[in-house]
Amino acid sequence: MTDQKPPVPAAKPVAPQSTASKPPMPAPAQKAVPVVPPVQPKPPGAPVTPPTPPRPTTPPPSRPAAPPLPKPNFSVTTPGTQPAQQAPKPPVAQTPPKPPAPPAPKPAGTPPRPSNPGQPAQAPRPPVAATAASPGGAKPLPVPADVRPPASTIRQAPRPTGVPQPGVPAGMPPVPGALPGQPPGPRPVPPAKGTAPLKPATAPQSASQPPAGQTPPAPKAAEYKKSPLRFLPLIVGLLVVVGVVAFLFNRFFGARTPTATPSGTQNQTQTQPETVITYWGLWEPTPVLEAALAEFESQNPGVRVNYQQQTYRDYRERLQTAIASGRGPDVFRYHASWVPMLRAELDPMPNTVYTPAEFQTIFFPIVSKQLDVNGRYVGVPLMYEGLALLYNQEVFDTANVQPPKTWAELRDLAVRLTIRNNDRIQRAGLAIGNAANVDNFSDILGLLMLQNGADPTNPTSQQAMEAIQFYTDFYTKSRVWDETLPNSTVAFARGDVAMILAPSWRIHEIKNQNPNITIGVAPVPQLGDNKITWASYWVEGVSAQSRNKEAAWALLKYLSSQEALQLLHSDASKERSFGEIYPRVDMANLLADSPYAAAYLADAPYAQDWYMNSFTHDNGLNDQIIKYYQDALTSSLSGSVQLDKAIQTVSQGLLQILRQYNLVR
């Protein structure tokens, strides 16, 4: 609302007046305010809405003049209704008002002067000086007609304060009012349509009766407040976004750059990176290792093993290439004869895993011999493998024979069990003598050379040539085997051969081809009193480039424990006929009654080896040497080249291979 005159001093609320007469006081200049037209008197017989009776109050004691108060907000007061108590507002910088006279005390028991219910509210009066009440009571000061409404003679019943009352006419300007002894407090009334909104009050107030001819608005208990739940979708959305961002940040950056714990905080835990051990396996499928790896992870929180079964094709080359590029595994399987080829990739075993004395005691002697590099071991075996004599139990029962113990007995029994149809072999006695269809011919030939005392690095020596000649005689003289038969493993499964020399994993192949066959297993025959057997097994090593060497070696120590080896053997037995043969000396008795593993374990303490291990697929040391012997035997048995000259070629090629891998100078 815009004032029409210069600003005047702020009005002070009028104190309750006594009934005594007061001297007339000149009215100070009034501030122009809009005045609502007076309500026309109602016709006779019209219903009269009784005003709300006032609350009886107790007049306050006399008090000195208060400092100037700010200009009050306008409000509407129902006749006889007391406004709610409100703290005065701080004064606004205005023209200093004239100091009012202190109000005269009002006699006790004098009711307040009610206002005319039908009279519209007027602008507030400036403060006036009150005259002390006379004992007999005096007439009140006359109030100018344009300032104060006529007094109402209707007494109102007391009512509770602070509750909004209906019936306030729309657009009626408010008037100030106060309880006796309390500072005035403005109360808001909704503005009428077309009227500029008034300054809102700070406390609830009562409203006067509406003018005649107007419909009172519906009571307004409180201003409508919007529900805070309207922000719930926005809050949930923000939380989801923050959560996703935090997850992505932690996923890609948390493991590599964990947040440091601030100093002074002890309850905050720092995010620890997970250690992932990449494990390249070769022959064992994942289900065989699941339980053992899960147990290791439970014993080592924060460490996880990622097992990956590899194919044997080009495995050795792929392994070395991956390690050299920094993308290789932490733990990997390799053949024990590959140590000369993998010297740069193998990490020496720390003494915290096994001391040298412990290692030599726990595992078979061949393991310590093959895995020793400059006095330190570079791997841990989880299995043992070698050669044994496999025989057809039904054929032996029919012939009423026992497994042979020497090579002489084996040769005689092979001749006896061979069945011919004219010049064609119908059933061979033993798969031996050539390289074309004897699956593990190089292992058998290497075993004969070692048993005869030959140095494998010198195949032209007398001991070596005698062993090679003895081997070929089974084919050329005894004729217990020929090239018309299928490969030895297939021939045994079909019943086309009575005996073969093979590793234990060949038993699984035979059983898969012929589940009804009964297989007997015996130790390999010997040439003399000094017992020598053949070993060809796989071990687990740790990459020299691994970033998790400590965890990797801890994994191998656990997997080579008795508990883990038994678990591996049990789970492997669910996948095939039997599990891996134990590599530990102290566990050999656990498989002493096994019909398949007992013979291999009986030979394990006497096992030796050289670089003639078949089916390692290394495309290196073993395969290259085997290829030289294969070509020599094939050319010699075909008659194109004499055996001694063919072995000369083997000797030359062998020397080059051994120099390539620093095995000879």
How is this fold's topology laid out?
Elements (H helix, E strand, L loop, with lengths): L231 H23 L20 E7 L4 H14 L3 E7 L5 H10 L6 E5 L20 H7 L2 H6 L1 E2 L2 E2 L2 E2 L6 E5 H7 L7 H11 L1 E3 L2 E4 L13 H11 L10 H15 L11 H7 L4 E4 L2 H9 L5 E4 L10 E2 L3 E5 L6 H11 L2 H12 L24 H6 L3 E2 L12 H17 L5 H18 L5
Parallel strand pairs: 1-2, 1-3, 12-14
Antiparallel strand pairs: 3-13, 4-5, 6-13, 7-10, 7-11, 8-9
Helix pairs in contact: 2-13, 8-9, 10-11, 15-16
Q: What can you tell me about this protein's structure?
A:
This protein has helices at 232-254, 286-299, 315-324, 356-362, 365-370, 393-399, 407-417, 441-451, 462-476, 488-494, 505-513, 549-559, 562-573, 598-603, 621-637, 643-660; strands spanning 275-281, 303-309, 331-335, 372-373, 376-377, 380-381, 388-392, 419-421, 424-427, 499-502, 519-522, 533-534, 538-542, 607-608. By secondary structure, the chain is of the alpha/beta class. Helix 2 packs antiparallel against helix 13, helix 10 crosses helix 11 (505-513) and helix 15 packs antiparallel against helix 16. Mean pLDDT is 76; it is low at 1-54, 56-213, 218-224 and 255-269.
Name the features.
single chain, 665 residues, alpha/beta, three-stranded antiparallel beta sheet, 28% helix, elongated, disordered N terminus
